[in-house]
Amino acid sequence: MARAPLLRRARRLLGALLLAAPMLTMAVPEALAHAALVESSPADGEVLPAGPTFLSLLFDEPVTPLALRLLGPAGEVPLRPAPGPAGTLRAALPAGLAEGTYIASYRVVSADGHPVGGALAFGLGTAPAPAPVGASEDAGWTDAAAVLRGIFLAAFAIAAGGALFRIFVEEVAPARRRSMAAIAAAGAAAALAALAVQGGAMAALPFPAGLADPSLLALGAGSALLPRAVATSAGMALLAASLPFTGRLARGVGPLGAVLAAIGLALSGHAAAGGAGMQAMLAAHALAAAYWLGALWPLLAILSERGAGALPAVRRFAALAIPAVALLLLGGTVQALGNLPGWGALFDTGYGGLLLAKLAGTAALLALATLNHFRLTPALPGCGGRPLARSIRAEAAIGLGVLAATAFLGVTPPHAAPHHPAAVPTGIQATAQAAGMAMRLEVTPARPGPNRLTLHIQHPDGRPADPTEVWLELSQPAAGVDGLRRRMRPEAPGRFVLEGPELAVPGHWTARAELLLGDFDQGAATFGVEVGPAP
User: Fold this and answer.
1) Looking at beta carbons, which pairs linking 275-283 to residues 24 or more positions away fall under 8 Å?
2) Separation CA 275–CA 199 (nearest Å)
3) pLDDT tens-digit profile of 51-63?
4) pTM, whole model, 2 decimals?
């Protein structure tokens, strides 16, 4: 029976969208990952003769405030929030602030929906030790968000891919369509559960104990993640409702659900901060990936049932998949590399490691697809479907790995380095290795207030190393202090120094040293240092 003209036009439109996805990927530049603090008053590291009347933080994009705290010599200073223009956080400060070191910590939600935290320090005269404060956030929320994202991406690939397979290749068997519908329902549930995880991250509650808080879902629903959760869950619900049935209506509703879920993917996250062009690119990119990966299951079933008789269906699939996937690899590479701060970040950051894993997996998938198209598919009439089926199973396994890497890339800032903590000593020294060099951090006196931090860097043969720049980032999550970033000054070959009152709170501190070794070469190491109580 001939298909209706409307169905033929929809099929051509979807095909054009799949083929255009990689071109859109190459044409639209990648957005910056999260909001960044560009200016503050008082400035980070500033020493003031008298107490300021306002604390003001300016970000490079609009933000939604979650928490703003100020730690001083007498403990936490009460803040009175004041309205400010877009991208600005302001809080009135009480009069008569005592002399000492003050650490302002903030937590906001950026325009792309990601919670972002940081800290800055300023001083009023000398710096006596402030009182310690209680625990803050737990990084488990980030991992939970990545897991839910991975579940959704896998469900989207299978269900949306099945709906597109019905349009472009042939009908899927009823039992498999029912299984795809159940998987689509699980994807819809994962999209909604992400709201609660977002709420936990915004509130910086401990994970997983914070999951018992009944306010998490409402808090997440008030964030930028809500439109994405609604659209993606609605799209997956349409897929779940249409896949079990036959007929023109069911075959038409399925691709509409796939498109709606793909659009929902672009309504928050990095793409949302990049504007309409970036969002359109991501939606088309997701559809192209779903057509390719989602077709593997029905193709395996056809090969198992028909053997060499599956040749027409395999060729119909490959006619659209091969050019889309090849350009998808090229465009995705250009897009992702544009998000890196430098080539060295490919090897020195968690984002770079995930990106390398994704690119390697995608390249392996493309190699298998090429083998299938040029060798195993033409050989079907002579050797049956087993060799091609084995290759497709390998594609499916690698594809799941690529989806997992994609899920964690979505919650990993490009500048964040992998955490390799050294053994934490009880004294004032810590050692680590980075970029083939040995490093030793000395902290004196390792007490709240002014400290001297000395970083010794040596090559394996004992020669002092000479990086172009060395930066030290200090954090103490238990006190809500995150990302106090300072440039260390060179004092002698292989020795860099930071002197200041940044270690103002007793307890366990993390010091991350970043080394700029050349225009495209970087190194990083993380130290643990215990700052004792005030004498």
Assistant:
1) 275/31, 277/24, 277/27, 277/28, 278/28, 278/30, 278/31, 280/24, 280/28, 281/21, 281/24, 281/25, 281/27, 281/28, 281/335, 283/259
2) 24
3) 788 888 888 777 7
4) 0.60
